[in-house]
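Here comes just one.
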Amino acid sequence: MVQEPKFIIVIGASAGGLNALCEVVAQLHEDIDAAIFVVLHLSRRGIGDYLRHRLQQNTVLRCSVVAEEMPIERGHIYVAVPDYHLIVKKGVCKVGDGVEENRWRPSIDVLFRSAAVAYGERVIGVILTGLMDDGTAGMIAIKRCGGLSVVQDPNEAEYPEMPLSVLNNISVDYSLPLSQIGYVLFQFMETKQFLDTPVPEDVIREAEIAEKVATGIDVVQQVSEGQAVYSCPDCGGSLWELGEIGQRRFRCHIGHVYTELDLLIKEQETIEKTLWVALRMMEERKHLLNRLASESTSKGLLTMARDHKKRAGDLQNHIDILKGILFKIKID
C-alpha cells in the first residue's frame, strides 16, 4: 500500500545545480515524512537517468525518473523527465508536454505552482544555484498558499542569480548554506502548525494552464491585469501582464510565459534570427542580380547589365551594414 507523505519538498536548480542537489539529498534521512521532487535545467536529451543515478549515489531514499503517472510515496525522490514538465497532483505526479515557461521545459515554476495548488501549506520550496529567475513565480505561489520558502545562500552559490531573484521578490523564510538545508527542513516538518490557508484562485488557474486543462484568451484574461503592448516571441500572439506581488510576468493564451528578463532575452534572440534570415535573403538577391548582370552583358544589353550591377552593389552596402549590426548584437 502506498504511504502518502505529510509534506511535499520541491527543489529547483540550474547552472551548478548537480553537485548542490547531491549535497542536499545526502542530508535527507530514510524516515523523512515527505516526497521530494526535483527539476534541474539540463540537456533535453537523455539526462534524466543520469541525474537519477547521481542522486541515488548520494541518498538512501529511492530515486525515480517520473513516468506518465506515478503515485506519490513517502521517502521517494522524483526527477523530472528531460523536455517535459513535472506536475504534482493530489496523490500522483505526472509529466506534462505543455509549452515552455521562462524558456524552459521542465520549468521550476510549473513544478512549484502545481505542488502549491495540490498540497498548499504542506509544500516546502527550495531554490539552489542557477542563472536567470525560473522558480521565483513558483516560490511566490508556494508562499501565497502557506508553504515554506528556502533558498541557497547566494554568497556560496556557484551561480547566485536564481536565489537572488527569489530574495529580491519575496520575503524568504530561510537563506541557508547547503550544509544547513536538510536540518532546517526536518526542523520545520516537526514543528509545522497548519493554518488552513486557502489556495488563491489565480494560482489554481495558472496551474491549470500549464497542465493544459484550461487554455484560451478568456482564461488568461482572468489571471491578468490586462493586455500588454508586446507580442509573444514564440507564437506571435498577444501577451497579457501578470502583475502579482514581487514579480511581473507576461503570458499568452497558448501558454507561453516570460518574466521581464526572459522576455528581453527571447526578443533579442528573435531579432537576431530575423536579421540572419534577412541577411540570407539579401545575399541570395545579390547573387541573382550579379547573375542577371552577367547574362545581360553576354547578350549585349549593357544598360540593363549596369543597372543590375548597381543594384547588386547597393545591396552589398546594406549587407555590410547588417553584418555590422549582427556582430554588435553578438558582442552586446
In short: Residues 215-255 form one domain. The first strand starts at residue 7 and ends at 13. The mean pLDDT is 89. The chain has ten helices and 14 strands.
